[in-house]
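User: Round two. Same drill as before: sequence, then structure, for each protein.

Assistant: Same drill it is. First protein:
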Amino acid sequence: MAQKKAPRERPGISVVVTTYNEEQNIGPCLESLLWCDEILVVDSYSSDRTPEIVRGYGKVRFVQRTYFGSAAQKNWAIDETVHDWILIFDADERCTPALRREIEELLARGPDHEAYTIRRRVFFLGKVIRFSGWQHDQVIRLIKRGAGRYPNRRVHADMKTRTPAPLLKNVMDHYMVDDFHEYVLRIVKYSHWGAAQGWREGRRSGLKEVLGRSAWRFLRTYGLQLGILDGMRGLVFCMLQAYGTYLKWSLLWSWRVNEKRGIAPNLPAFDESEETWQGLEELDEQRSPEPQ
């Protein structure tokens, strides 16, 4: 009688989690990731109980680093990990059991790709947002070392990979909004960073950007992307997205006005370290074309 082959052992996997004042989220996030072989939490000097909670997990390596944006923080953290496969999470995200099984089975049988995209199931005040544009939310979060890098952007940076990153079947949960007031403050912060990115890139803003982009953001998410079907949550959520767009372009417009008056904007700090952004040019050169 033929003997059954022993199951193939999967390669080690490191997970990176970035945090700042996430005492409500960090515990459940880490609990969902304890199956990983290495957990690295990179904190931006939280002032709440986040560091205390993280240090309660003996398996977790906790470091603190000044925050220059999500892309800079994650690139730096990737370079600090020890395993060849790297999973990337934010503190308000959870790895579902189905996603864990899929990743472990994928790595055990030998992946066909160097990077993978994961869909996010977005929660707004405790309920899933089914539409409003977020039904298509997906991010590249599982990579082999050297196969991906975040571009030099202060906010909303999508990872670049040298090969296509196919979509996994299962989702991660993203508890994006649990506190409305905190989320509004986050939108203001992101709008400031987005305007700063535009300033660095030499972009300008006027009527088309301030009015046109804001109105289109609402019409697209609430109408074309069916936010209306999310009820009151959809209305509030889509208006918040449009508000963020309005703030970003209005802020950039105000800076250009003040530039003519000799007043410089108050920009956030950017990570100017070459090491943080190393490998991006090589990825552009090596990137395979998307299949037709």
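Second protein:
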Amino acid sequence: MANMTLSSMVVSRDWQEVSVLECILGGLHMDVAVECEPERAVQRLSHSKIDALIVDCDLNGSAKLFSAMQSPKTRFNTVPLVIMGGPKCMPSLDDTGALFAFEKPISVEQAVRTLSAARCMILDGRLRYHRIGLEVPVHMKQDSFTTDAQLINVSQGGMRLWTDREFEADGLQISCELPGSQSVLKAQAEVVWRDENGNVGVRFVKIPPQHQRALQLWLAQQFLAN
């Protein structure tokens, strides 16, 4: 199974600390870009996909970067932010919008723990909305009405199906086998959209905990294998 490589940017001129972070991030399968100027970092963020941002608070101009990160007008205001700095200049997490922080000089143990948590959060966010495309039959039941549909893709929250049958929006019972999974996925669902070509979007309303866990594990395996 392949490891999922994520991207990160370190905004700092403290090359000793940067080298430590590069080693840690590399071990976490995260690519690292280093930027010395906060203004240039903002420009790169505006047109590059960055999964995590690490900013040195000792760097002049970092306050403007934090302000830009929190602006609703920027498309990168949801990038997970980690801050680092000396004990005398560390701003609060609330002031910067950061989710994680560690002091300089960097404790390798603390940095590994912090950056591992950030990576897990990034992957969890991706998995929540990531859809896996596959073609398997889905059994659908609504009161006494039953039919089979074709699964197009699936995520943690629902499915896209194709069927030539009409049915009500609420009260669906659906089940299907996911390739390589040991259990059958069963859920209560509702229709949230449909088009004239037979494509139907359904949202899971209720899934037994064991089925939810099996779906999460299956999606994670497919995601990390790509």
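Residues 108-129 form the longest helix (22 residues).

User: Perfect.
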